[in-house]
Amino acid sequence: MIDCRNLDVTRLAARLYQGSYPRTPIRPCGFQVLVLCAKELQQRAPEAGLRVLHCPLDDRADVSFSRSEWLRANRVAEEVVDLLGRGARILTTCAEGRNRSGLVNGLVLYRISALNGAECVEHIRQRRAGALTNEQFVEALCRLPYKLAHQAPHRERRALHRVRSIAQYLD
Predict the structure, then answer these.
(1) What is the pLDDT of residue 94?
(2) 4-154 — its CATH code?
């Protein structure tokens, strides 16, 4: 029997969670999607009914955050937005559930809400203690401006239409 109370997860929005790498099965806890953001933790035993997305990112302070990592995080965030719009319950993880998962979830929140990047950072930090301390990730997110739904690219506009308002997702 899996005790879901022992999972290190924080709810950021409706059906969107952030946490450390789970060492036990998570499908019995109601998650349909697992996003693995820790470069060193990409292997996982398969679970029936669980879709796994891979977004390997490096979180070392001595390594520059690369353009390819930024693009990878954005690509995965777009997929997460689509899956949220289809009703999936999603857990985004990294080693400690702080920075890499925070980056991807910040990009997701930016896409599903009217928040700018800095507000997405603050939202995550308010809910998950110790989250988003990687200054490179925070700087990248904080560069995301306010946007209006009619200014969003077509793919994001569809996702924004599906996910109508921030009130659906944020407390």
Answers:
(1) 94
(2) 3.90.190.10
With H, G, I as helix, E, B as strand and everything else as coil, classify residue 166: helix
Q: Cα separation of 47 and 83, whole Å?
A: 18
- Site of tokens 């924004």: 160
Which is nearest to 96 in space by CA: 58, 130, 53, 61? 130
Residues 33, 99: Cα–Cα separation, whole Å: 19
What average pLDDT does the segment 40-60 reach?
91
Is the CB of residue 110 less than 8 Å from the CB of residue 122? no
Mean per-residue pLDDT, 70-81: 94
Widest Cα–Cα separation across the chain: 48
Task: Report d(CA 52, CA 44) in Å as an integer.
Answer: 9
Q: Where are the domains of the chain?
A: 4-154
